[in-house]
Design goal:
Layout (H helix, E strand, L loop, with lengths): L6 H13 L25 E3 L6 E3 L2 E7 L1 H4 L5 E7 L8 E2 L3 E6 L3 E4 L6 E3 L4 E4 L4 E5 L5 E8 L5 H4 L19 E3 L5 E5 L2 E7 L11 E7 L4 E5 L5 E8 L2 E6 L7 E5 L3 E5 L4 E6 L3 E8 L11
Antiparallel strand pairs: 1-20, 2-3, 3-4, 4-11, 5-10, 6-9, 6-11, 7-8, 7-10, 9-12, 13-14, 14-15, 15-22, 16-21, 17-20, 17-22, 18-19, 18-21
Length: 297
């Protein structure tokens, strides 16, 4: 009886067991495995320490979450590392992008004016927008969220999933710097949520929202669900426990979250979270909407 309800996983386990050199009393017999797969459908927690980076030249990419490992095509997460002195080149975003910078960088748009990006800042690039990221003052590490997502084959091969451009007939939209010093914080129990990106005059498309979560140890977020939105967490520090009840399942699954975790919650999956150590994480919603509840006192 297939309790995993995942054909690829079932086929893999069947192939492994069929190829195992069983002792004569068991060879050719039908057996029931003494364990169950309890993970929700699609990978919910990914440890980015275990994700290998691939690159071409001075840029290396790690695909943390995409349709390949989550089954969710609504968003992809890619870690981008630029060596000191490197540049992405001027590139056009075929999809909406949200960047979080762990280190300082330089940003240029279609006007080619250099803008300093501080560690902890975010940058929004609308679909068809043009931007260049430069590592002028040292190596750059950033997280890139792409909406919609998909199977990031080019990025998995180490190539930036955006075409390089050198000119244009009409001036395209440029990147929007979302500086940490300008972001507004809202109390959330004993913690706080700082919203960087939400639909506004600067971000007219309701494609994506982003915030920084800061939860003290012991803070709990009760079980809730987003009917239409995907939620992504890119943990910066701390630990916690995520409980997920996937759509169509009644039994919850408890998942450990660490300082190097990426969490993906698809629409319709009930989930709850408890911080076991002081936690800081970038939170992304696509489409935007659920972040507005943080403004309610």
């Amino acid at each position: 009886r297939d309790t995993a309800r995942t054909p690829r996983l079932s086929a893999c386990v069947t192939a492994v067991l069929a190829g195992y050199p069983w002792a004569p009393p068991l060879r050719g017999q039908t057996i029931q495995l003494p364990f169950q797969f309890r993970a929700p459908n699609g990978q919910n927690v990914i440890d980015r320490k275990l994700v290998s980076a691939t690159g071409q030249g001075t840029i290396r990419l790690s695909v943390l979450a995409d349709e390949n490992n989550t089954g969710n095509a609504m968003a992809s997460l890619v870690e981008v590392a630029l060596a000191s002195g490197a540049t992405t080149g001027m590139r056009r975003a075929d999809r909406a992008e949200l960047w979080f910078f762990a280190t300082p960088a330089e940003l240029r748009g279609p006007d080619r004016v250099a803008v300093a990006v501080a560690a902890g800042d975010m940058v929004y690039v609308p679909k068809s927008g043009v931007r260049e990221i430069l590592a002028k003052a040292g190596a750059v590490t950033a997280m890139l969220a792409i909406v919609p997502g998909g199977r990031e084959g080019a990025a998995r091969a180490g190539a930036l999933p955006t075409p390089e451009v050198s000119g244009w007939r009409a001036v395209p939209p440029g990147p929007v710097l979302l500086a940490a010093k300008a972001a507004k914080s809202y109390p959330r129990g004993p913690g706080k949520v700082t919203i960087f990106a939400e639909p506004s005059k600067r971000m007219t498309a309701p494609t994506i929202a982003a915030a920084l979560l800061e939860f003290p140890a012991g803070m709990a977020v009760p079980e809730h669900v987003h009917d239409k939105e995907t939620e992504l967490l890119y943990v910066l520090s701390g630990t916690g426990t995520m409980i997920v009840r996937d759509a169509g399942r009644t039994e919850p699954v408890e998942l450990a979250v660490t300082a190097t975790s990426v969490v993906q919650i698809p629409p319709g999956a009930k989930h709850a979270f408890t911080a076991t150590q002081n936690l800081r994480a970038v939170q992304i919603y696509t489409p935007a909407g659920p972040e507005q509840r943080f403004k309610v006192k």
